[in-house]
Amino acid sequence: MSTTPNLSLQVYAPDGTPIPPTVSREHLLDLARGVYERGGTYLSRGDVDIELAEVADKAACSLLRDRWDDAFPLAAYTELLTAVAALRAVLGFDPSPTAPEVFAWSLALAERIGEGVEEPTERSFVSFADGPYRGAVLSVPASLRAGPKDVLTVPIEWGDSAERGRGEARYQRGAALTDEGLWLYRLDGDVREDARPHIAPAATSQKGATR
């Protein structure tokens, strides 16, 4: 049997450039759903966006927790964040952050948290015990005398690309350092169960996303 392609099916632009075949977004969503089904998770087309956002959230918080452990390999988190961001781009969802963007965001957040701290200052490690930031560890400016701020207010978001909400979560500091040398913060007040850290990727990281 001949393997010669049927060139009559190829469509060309006016300048002679071949136009690649189009693939429907629904078909791409179904391919993604099929992979999830292989792993035992059954999603509707409308669930894929939220599922990928939650995966990126978990990977980002785990990266911010384990990056301080020199013995822990971070490549898995880095590659997972990149893979999720790439898949979201292909599917036309709002962008999610890559590992370098998570690091840059965490540095900016830490500096904002440290604004107005009593001088002289030092760097202290803070950890979040629950809520949207559960597991994340940040190095923040802290008062040499009193430690980091008693209350931290951090950005959160929820929802999907079509309907997204944003707000803030309030965390209260514990009375003393943990055995690991961390200041432990617990959620102070109610937040939505589906809330996650609002980590904004670079503005140029994704083009053509559906908003």
Brief sketch in words of this structure:
With 211 residues, this protein is α+β, with helices and mostly antiparallel strands. It has helices spanning 25-38, 48-66, 75-91, 99-113; strands at residues 11-12, 18-19, 121-128, 137-143, 151-159, 164-173, 183-187, 196-197. It has four helices and eight strands, in the order E-E-H-H-H-H-E-E-E-E-E-E.
How does this structure look, described?
This protein has helices at residues 25-38, 48-66, 75-91, 99-113; strands spanning 11-12, 18-19, 121-128, 137-143, 151-159, 164-173, 183-187, 196-197. The protein has 211 residues and is of the alpha+beta class. The protein has one domain. A six-stranded mixed sheet has the order 4-3-7-6-5-8. Strand 3 and strand 4 (137-143) form a beta hairpin. The N and C termini lie far apart (47 Å).
Which characteristics define this entry?
31% helix, 211 residues, two-stranded antiparallel sheet, disordered C terminus, six-stranded mixed sheet, single chain, 4 helices, alpha+beta
The rough form would be described as: elongated
Secondary structure: helix percent = 25-40%
Helix and strand element order = EEHHHHEEEEEE
Q: In the residues, how many domains can be counted?
A: 1
What proportion strand? Answer: 15-25%
Kindly report how far apart the N and C termini lie.
Answer: 47 Å
* Alpha-carbon Rg, integer: 22 Å
Helix and strand arrangement:
Blueprint: E1 11-12, E2 18-19, H1 25-38, H2 48-66, H3 75-91, H4 99-113, E3 121-128, E4 137-143, E5 151-159, E6 164-173, E7 183-187, E8 196-197
Parallel strand pairs: 3-7
Antiparallel strand pairs: 1-2, 3-4, 5-6, 5-8, 6-7
Helix pairs in contact: 2-3
